[in-house]
Amino acid sequence: MTRAGLTTERLVRAGAELADEAGFDQVTLSALARRFDVKVASLYSHLKNSQDLRTGIALLALEELADRAADALAGRSGKDALTAFANVYRDYAREHPGRYAAARLRLDPETAAASAGVRHARMTRAILRGYDLTEPDQTHAVRMLGSVFHGYVSLELSGGFSHSEPDSEETWSRVLDALDALLRNWPAR
User: Fold this and answer.
1) Model pLDDT, residue 46
2) Domain region containing 101
3) Number of domains in the chain
4) Cα distance between residue 27 and residue 14, in whole Å
5) Residue 128: pLDDT above 60?
């Protein structure tokens, strides 16, 4: 018999909270069972295994990020849209470090295609339309933006910029200025 009150959604949300508190790599069914004071076996009617839980957290994080990004982009274009989009990722990572890590979990192709990751790609391409990029340069630019945003945020979260001046906030602003300039002056082949 399943424990009253446990649902897949509730378990995934609790797993996301655990990820933010302890780190995404610490999320297991055992840790989640301890949180609810139940036996691990009680979770199997809702989740197949720890990977199923981790995938659920990744999907939740991607959805949350996509919703925030869509709200931030509404009515914006050009550098304003680029900055708003980038700040959504950075702010989310600061508020929810475990969920942010989960959002980068490699998903199987079918799960990825059905996830909010598709919305992220569409929003990034919408921003790039303001820079008049065509294929294949648009795909190159999508990859570059993802690399810069995720790389910067990962280094900042790990303390990589906390030991020197200028402040990382100033650097972030300069990075966004540089990205805008690069996108406006994309190199010809």
Assistant:
1) 94
2) 8-184
3) 1
4) 10
5) yes
Asked if omega into 166 is within 30° of 0 (cis), the reply is yes
Q: What percent of the chain has pLDDT over 90?
A: 88
Q: Is residue 145 part of a domain?
A: yes
Residue 189 domain flag:
no
Answer yes or no: is pLDDT of 88 > 80. yes
Helix, strand, coil percent content, the chain, rounded in steps of 5: 70, 0, 30
* pLDDT at 1 (0 to 100): 43
C-alpha triplet 94, 97, 103: angle, nearest 5°: 115
Contacts of 55 (CB under 8 A, 6+ apart): 105, 107, 111
CATH code at position 73: 1.10.357.10
Burial annotation 112-151 (CB, 10 A radius, 16+ → b, else e): eeebbbebbeebbeebbebbebeeebbeebbeebeebbee
